[in-house]
Amino acid sequence: MAEMRDADPIPTTVLRDTREQHPWTFDECAVETQDVTLLTGDYAVPADCTHDPESDTHYPRFAVERKSGHDFLTALTWERDRFTSESRRAAEWSQPMAVVVETSWQTLLRNRGCMAWRDIHPSQIVGTLSAWTDHYNVAFHFAESRRQAELCTYLLLVRRSLLRRREQI
Known about the structure:
169 residues; Rossmann fold; three-stranded parallel β-sheet; ERCC4-type nuclease
């Protein structure tokens, strides 16, 4: 299956981690999804991965991690160690691992939505994100809705494909 449309660097296939519990389908993006095991992240493109056939695992050099608002807050609190371990795996990538959150920054800062019943102050979120951005190779992206987060992810994968293509020229 072709990863690129002729000479066009736009991905035609998006790899989706099999452990994704609420997967995006990218129906509006004219790509097909392929469910695979990704070592890091939830979404990647084949050209940015090496595949180990023995373990049937794909090792991305760039990936997007999807987080619902609730998942994001859990990653900051109860599952912090697990998330930092995943972030460490992206340390050597040329581009930061993108973490796309399905809730807006304003919702988090105003203690609304997924924040409404949480015992976490917005300043703790700001401090944690600042520290993680400084210490790990990650970049956070916040979207107003699940649909916008899916589109943001697709655009991040396209951008990475364009950058990779430029590096090869």
